[in-house]
Specification:
The chain is an alpha/beta fold. The protein is built from eleven helices and 19 strands.
């Protein structure tokens, strides 16, 4: 639901989304690219992002049937792969909405309804979902026995492709190639994600690459790919500015004491909007192109910034994420990944889209 009076807003570039996805496809030399738009497209807005890249993406992928239905309701007609586990409760929805299921356990063959399209998922080392490579013969037999279903793809997932020289990436790759030797007639084979494309350019990326974090402009680790550009900028406006004296404490638990007389700005955003409280006293906020220190514990609705002695007007724009200071900087300061930072952004932040 659109906010009438938002306290902050995220501006998302549709052109950068398309540019990032096109660049990934080009670098991989892949015939197809699958746009991963789960978790509301990493909180960039799944419907809007999907519409923006629909002419570049060949497939879309989501985590759940509900996410897939939302895309269909939003007008997305291209194939949608659901990564999640099919159940008796949602089996009919795959047929009703023309969704592609993931089969990662032998019981799924009996759960899915006649005519449902699916991709096989093999666990080559992620340790999450999927058949083990040693089951490939058994899985093939099940696929042949269940020709009432349509097998249109087969995939796996690297667990350490964000590391640029991981032996395990190559081990998983060879395991998957061995599995594929038993499924040569399956039309689409895919394994590579953003990290694989960026860190392993010489690797065979098969028929299709997948990208979610790369599409929105980031790598999957602390390594930055300069050929990707973050599509989201997050801004707010200063709600209040007041003098602060040397030695005064700011916010809960008094974690910061003012070093010198100056001014304190209060921004009307906090962890209720998606700024992690764990980043208290670790962030910079840019006002008039100058970086200022965020100070004191971040609260649910407010974040404080020390302006030193600078004279700044209330209502001035404050850049939280943008330009050279982005979600990657936040992730490094928090000891997490950009995925978590971006998906923390809540619906209180108004989204605006530009071409």
């Amino acid at each position: 639901m659109k906010n009438n009076f938002p306290s902050s807003y995220a501006t998302i570039s549709k052109e950068l989304l398309r540019q990032n996805l096109t660049e990934l496809k080009h670098k991989a030399g892949a015939d197809r690219v699958l746009a991963v738009v789960k978790c509301d497209a990493y909180r960039h807005g799944a419907r809007q992002v999907s519409r923006a890249v629909k002419d570049v993406a060949d497939w879309f992928a989501v985590a759940s049937v509900d996410e897939a239905i939302d895309l269909r309701m939003g007008g997305i007609t291209k194939p949608i792969l659901v990564f999640g586990v099919p159940t008796y409760e949602n089996a009919a929805a795959y047929q009703t909405h023309g969704l592609t299921a993931t089969v990662s356990h032998k019981t799924h063959f009996s759960i899915l309804m006649d005519g449902t399209e699916y991709h096989l998922n093999f666990d080559t080392g992620m340790g999450r979902l999927g058949f083990k490579p040693r089951q490939s013969e058994e899985v093939r037999e099940q696929a042949v026995l269940n020709q009432r279903l349509i097998c249109s793809g087969i995939y796996s997932h690297h667990s350490s492709s964000d590391e640029p020289d991981s032996d395990f990436v190559r081990i998983q790759h060879e395991r998957f190639k061995d599995v594929l030797s038993r499924f040569s007639e399956v039309p689409i084979k895919h394994m590579s994600c953003t990290g694989t494309v960026g860190n392993y350019p010489g690797l065979d990326h098969f028929d299709m690459i997948r990208s979610g974090i790369g599409m929105v402009g980031y790598s999957s680790s602390s390594i930055r790919f300069n050929w990707l550009e973050p599509a989201l900028e997050w801004r707010s406006k200063i709600a209040q500015i007041r003098p602060i004296s040397k030695g005064e404490a700011v916010s809960y638990s008094s974690t910061w004491l003012c070093p010198e007389d100056g001014y304190l700005a209060t921004l009307p955003v906090g962890y209720g909007d998606g700024i992690p409280r764990s980043l208290s006293n670790r962030l910079k906020v840019f006002i008039n192109q100058k970086g200022y220190q965020q100070v004191g514990n971040i609260t649910m609705d407010y974040t404080m910034v020390y302006l030193e002695n600078d004279q700044i007007n209330p209502g001035s724009e404050a850049v939280l994420i943008g330009d050279s200071y982005n979600a990657q900087n936040w992730a490094e300061a928090a000891g997490t990944n950009t995925h978590e930072i971006l998906t923390n952004i809540t619906d209180r932040v108004e989204k605006q889209y530009k071409e």
